[in-house]
Amino acid sequence: MTCIDLIITDQPNIFLEYGIHPSLDKHCEHQIVFGELNISLPSPPPYKKTVWDYSKANIPTIRNCLKETNWLSVLQDLNVDQMAEVFTNKLIRILKANVPSRVLSINNKDPPWITRQVKAAVKRKRRVFRKFMNSGRKQEDWENFNIIRNGTSRIVAKQRNSIIVTLVKNYRILQPV
Fold it and tell me: How would you label 119-152 residue by residue, b for 16+ Cβ within 10 Å and e otherwise?
């Protein structure tokens, strides 16, 4: 008997299951050593991200603000690091005043096709369902809910398919020819 494959650990309690499986090939005497670890990685917490809409930026005002700044007096007697910090802070203040932006809450637990449009459709569907439940379950509210539910399903499917098509295209681009 020889020892080819080993599992060595100083934490044996981390294994849910371990052992040896017989070879998949009848002609090979090598057996498969396996171990199933009890490791779960928590999802990262949601975080805020500022998204700038540069297509709606007030470019002339930004240029004027940058031109009108007396950079020699602003940056005088500063070292390189301080100059970079002062310039960055000034630029960000100008951009905040002249470029529309919004803060998004990013949750990495959501699949990539869960966009703002999908979230809005799901919220609308829930709102319409609550109305149906609270209004005595009227037939016309049920019909309205079905229309909204089907529309939400179409929106989710369209977004999901769009992401899948993009992933497939990117995968093909990465494949060697």
Answer: eebeeebeebbeebeeeeeeeebeeebeebeeeb
Q: How many Å from the N-terminal Cα to the C-terminal Cα in the chain?
A: 45
| Whole-model pTM over 0.85 | no
- What is the C-alpha separation between 102 and 50, in angstroms, rounded? 6
- Return the ∠ at Cα 147 (arms to 142 and 153), rounded to 5°: 120
Among residues 114, 112, 116, which one has the least CA distance to residue 102? 116
Q: What percent of the chain has a predicted confidence (pLDDT) above 70?
A: 94
| SS3 labels along the chain | CCCCCCCCCCCHHHEEEEEEECCCCCCCCCCEEEEEECCCCCCCCCEEEEEECHHHCCHHHHHHHHHHCCHHHHHCCCCHHHHHHHHHHHHHHHHHHHCCEEEEEECCCCCCCCCHHHHHHHHHHHHHHHHHHHCCCCHHHHHHHHHHHHHHHHHHHHHHHHHHHHHHHHHHHHCCC
Judge whether residue 93 has pLDDT over 70.
Answer: yes
Ordered by start, the domain boundaries in the chain are 1-40, 47-105, 110-174
Q: Would you state the structure tokens that stand for residue 89, as one six-digit string? A: 């802070």
